């Protein structure tokens, strides 16, 4: 049985509460990512997504010098590295999550993304269903604004 440890990305780009939203935007641009875990040492505090920067940051007329505390999401789901890939896929599908921090003993050790599940042939259906479910909700949300 494959576990999350077998498929997760271990080289995580992170930031701290001392950073500001401009620095996070540059970090995302330079690393071609849309998700940054916020840590204190190795302890996961929360995450900031590119959507968080737009919706809670710039669209609220916050300047680039605004602190991470204004845009961070602290109530996040996490999994341990020993979680089965099946369970991770189910959790992501049920909660419509694209990226899931992997935390052992309170420390961030990796990230599992929906794409990590999709490359595993045996889990393509679960990843496809999760992505489809997420995309359907995003489409419904964006349709409300168009």
UniProtKB/TrEMBL annotation:
Keywords: CBS domain. This is CBS domain-containing protein. Residues 8-64, 72-129 form the CBS domain. It comes from the Bacteria. Gene3D superfamilies: CBS-domain. PANTHER family: CBS DOMAIN-CONTAINING PROTEIN, CBS DOMAIN-CONTAINING PROTEIN CBSX3, MITOCHONDRIAL. It comes from Paenibacillus abyssi. SUPFAM superfamilies: CBS-domain pair (SSF54631). It holds the Pfam family CBS. The keyword Glycosyltransferase does not apply.
């Amino acid at each position: 049985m494959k576990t999350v440890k077998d498929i997760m990305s271990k080289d995580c780009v992170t930031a701290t509460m001392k950073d500001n939203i401009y620095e996070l935007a540059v970090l995302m641009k330079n690393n071609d990512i849309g998700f940054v875990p916020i840590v204190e040492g190795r302890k996961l505090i929360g995450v900031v997504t590119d959507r968080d920067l737009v919706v809670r940051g710039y669209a609220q007329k916050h300047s680039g010098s605004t602190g991470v505390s204004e845009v961070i999401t602290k109530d996040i789901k996490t999994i341990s590295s020993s979680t089965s890939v099946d369970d991770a896929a189910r959790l992501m599908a049920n909660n419509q999550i694209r990226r899931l921090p992997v935390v052992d003993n309170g420390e961030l050790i990796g990230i599992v993304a929906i794409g990590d599940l999709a490359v595993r042939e045996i889990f393509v259906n679960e990843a496809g269903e999760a992505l489809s479910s997420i995309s359907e909700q995003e489409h419904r949300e964006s349709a409300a604004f168009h």
